UniProtKB/TrEMBL annotation, chain B:
It comes from Streptomonospora alba. InterPro entries: AAA+_ATPase, ABC_carbohydrate_import_ATPase, ABC_transporter-like_ATP-bd, P-loop_NTPase. This is Sugar ABC transporter ATP-binding protein. Keywords: ATP-binding, Nucleotide-binding. It comes from the Bacteria. Residues 6-242 form the ABC transporter domain. GO terms for molecular function: ATP binding; ATP hydrolysis activity. Signal peptide: none annotated.
Length: 369, 258
């Protein structure tokens, strides 16, 4: 980040500036201690909140405009559909965020989800007697195993995540095709109890959406309140520094891949329950939408910052765009352009906020002199 | 004179064919600032890393409060009470000041991070060092170089060390920021810590150091009291000028080089 947040104090300190661009001019000389600005204390958090508020605002605006154009948009059924649609993306975005925070990326999630979904279908077909919860657990387990493969290759073999997961994207998809062999599994092959899961609601909210909410809250709580969660940010922010203070960097890189795999597996299970029609193409191309959701939600692609709450809001926003733009008679080309624009705007917004925060802080520091 | 808290004798270390350290001695007393000087490649950072346990020496003894100890890993050094601030800072830019201070030693309550306690301790620590920060909850990326260096030093103090190693702490800083860091180093001395300060900057050394130990090509090339030694004498030892009685006396074994 250094170099971009140069302050606007040109005259001060020019006499002996030997420091790197990140070092601010006009540093106050040693002075009697003062209170550490408690009033400014929430600045870091505020940046994040501004980001999350911005997404909520965009979301509200989009919903309002769409509802004006088409009042049916806010009907119970259409909201339920929207939430169901956002469920998978949200779960995947949470897992992806944890990987991104450690300065890695998992491009294989679409394939993992597809493989898990197909595994669920195949298990129902070939072992009809098996209880539904066990079949669902198998689906999650398939995802977890894929995550372990990714994690081992990245953390132990030290291959860059981009390369590893690009490879496993094709590998897992290849296994899926080989396994399916052109076969399709239909709703008729799966028990009604399983397919009914997507239709169960709690207080009017579809069960899968409740599951997604639980995933978001659990991951958010973990990242915010646990040492190992904090250490994920440290690893993504400055791997060398993390290693020097004794953080087990490889373990902290490995775990998010496994969690992300499990969540992709869970998404596969929910996909199977909701759509009931499974073939080898399930989840194709999803990975970029997942990364987009996380980035729009403020998770930096360079690691070390962002929250899963933001990523979940990003997923909700992208899903709402998908649902709303057709109702507004916007063509599918423009839908993609809008998503692209959103990514650019959100990254630009991040930079702007960071620069302004830095300027305000340093300005405050030199005024004390 | 008090007994040295840390004493190295005959430390050697080679990287393949490069003999980075050759029979180096060094001692630091409690409440003493020892400047470690030498040209580029003289072996200063290597010696710091040996003390910090990042590289272990090939041979030689390390005495800690008079007792022989082994330092094979960074954790060994930390357990003894040796804190190291590396040349390249090692802060996490995206984390705030409190998180950086407690990185790796976070305080928890019932398994969860105890932010309130950590913030209180951070405030206490920085106040005790007479350091003022604009805010404890901003990412350290937004701090100036001097402030970052101070955070790095403050973090090292959390473990209540007895010896602090600083590898070129002022290398990237402007005048005012350097003064802040030197101030802090003086406060460390006043607390009775032994400080080993690697520096290229003779002005810094004259400002805060009690003694100057010079390395040249991996060997001891003199040990001077800063008060009673002239600038020229120290520079001569660093560069290896031959007509220097102090350095000749300090390293009688190296007469063949002259
Ligand atoms: N890991 C390493 N592998 C091989 N050679 C090394 C390694 N570390 C240091 N050296 C060599 O050891 C010698 C001493 O290096 P060192 O980094 O200790 O010097 P220094 O006194 O800190 O110099 P500077 O003032 O430039 O920081 C140099 O010749 C260097 O090339
Ligand atoms: Mg060095």
């Amino acid at each position: 980040m250094s170099g971009t947040e140069e302050t606007g104090a040109p005259a001060a300190g020019t006499a002996a500036r030997t420091g790197p661009p990140g070092a601010a001019a006009g540093e106050a000389a040693p002075q009697p201690p003062k209170e550490h600005g408690a009033g400014d204390g929430r600045a870091g958090r505020r940046i994040r909140q501004v980001r999350e508020l911005g997404i909520l605002l965009a979301l509200a605006l989009l919903v309002a405009v769409t509802t004006l154009a088409n009042p049916g948009f806010l009907s119970g059924q259409s909201v339920r559909d929207l939430l169901l649609g956002a469920t998978l993306l949200t779960i995947l975005a949470v897992g992806q965020s944890m990987v991104l925070i450690t300065r890695n990326v998992d491009l294989s999630v679409g394939s993992v989800m597809g493989l898990s979904a197909f595994a669920v279908g195949v298990t129902f077909v070939s072992l009809p007697g098996l209880p539904t919860p066990i079949v669902m657990a198998i689906g999650v387990l398939v995802g977890t195993l894929c995550g372990v493969v990714n994690g081992v290759l990245v953390a132990a073999a030290r291959v860059p995540a981009l390369v590893v997961t690009l490879g496993t994207l094709y590998m897992f998809r290849g296994i899926d095709y080989w396994w399916a062999g052109g076969r399709q599994i239909n709703a008729a092959d799966m028990p009604d109890g399983f397919l009914g899961l997507a239709r169960i609601t709690l207080f009017g909210i579809p069960l899968p959406a409740v599951v997604a909410l639980a995933v978001v809250l659990a991951a958010g709580w973990y990242l915010r309140n646990y040492r190992s969660g904090r250490e994920l940010y440290a690893v993504g922010s400055e791997p060398a520094a993390a290693r020097l203070v004794g953080i087990p960097v490889d373990r902290r890189v490995f775990a998010p891949f496994v969690i992300n795999g499990s969540l992709a597996g869970l998404a596969g299970v929910l996909y199977a329950a909701r759509f009931g029609t499974l073939d080898a193409t399930v989840g194709t191309g999803l990975e970029l939408e997942v990364v987009a959701a996380a980035v729009v939600g403020g998770v930096a692609i360079f690691g070390g910052s962002g929250t899963v709450y933001g990523a979940a809001l990003g997923a909700l926003l992208l899903s709402t765009i998908d649902a709303a733009l057709p109702m507004l008679q916007v063509g599918s080309f423009w839908q993609q352009a809008v998503v692209g624009l959103l990514i650019l705007v959100s990254i630009g917004l991040d930079r702007l906020l960071a620069v302004r925060a830095a300027r305000r802080l340093r300005g405050g520091g030199s005024r004390g002199a | 004179m008090s007994r040295p808290v840390l004493e190295l004798s005959g430390i050697s270390k080679s990287f393949g064919a490069v003999q980075a350290l050759n029979q180096v001695d060094l001692a630091v007393d409690p409440g003493e600032v020892v400047a470690l000087l030498g040209d580029n490649g003289a072996g200063k950072s290597t010696l710091v890393k040996v003390i910090a346990g990042v590289n272990s020496g090939d041979s030689g003894d390390i005495l800690w409060e008079g007792k022989r100890v082994e330092i094979n890993r960074p954790a060994d050094a930390q357990r003894l009470g040796i804190a190291t601030i590396y040349q390249d800072l090692a802060l996490c830019d995206n984390l705030d000041i409190v998180a950086n201070l407690f990185l790796g030693v976070e305080k928890t309550a019932f398994g969860a991070l105890d932010e309130v306690d950590m913030e209180r301790r951070a405030t206490e620590l920085l106040d005790s060092l007479s350091v003022k920060m604009p805010s404890l909850r901003v990412p350290v990326a937004s701090l100036s170089g001097g402030q970052r260096q101070i955070i790095a030093i403050a973090r090292a103090l959390l473990g209540e060390p007895k010896v602090v190693l600083l590898d070129e702490p002022t290398a990237a800083l402007g005048v005012a920021q350097t003064a802040q860091v030197l101030d802090l180093i003086e406060r460390l001395r006043d607390r009775g810590l032994g400080v080993i300060l690697v520096s290229h900057n003779m002005a810094d050394v004259r400002a805060v150091a009690d003694r100057a130990a010079v390395l040249r090509l991996g060997r001891n090339a003199g040990d001077f009291g800063v008060e009673e030694t002239s600038y020229e004498e120290i520079v001569a030892a660093i560069t290896g000028a031959s007509d220097n009685p102090v350095s000749r006396r300090a390293s009688v074994t190296r007469t063949e080089e002259a």
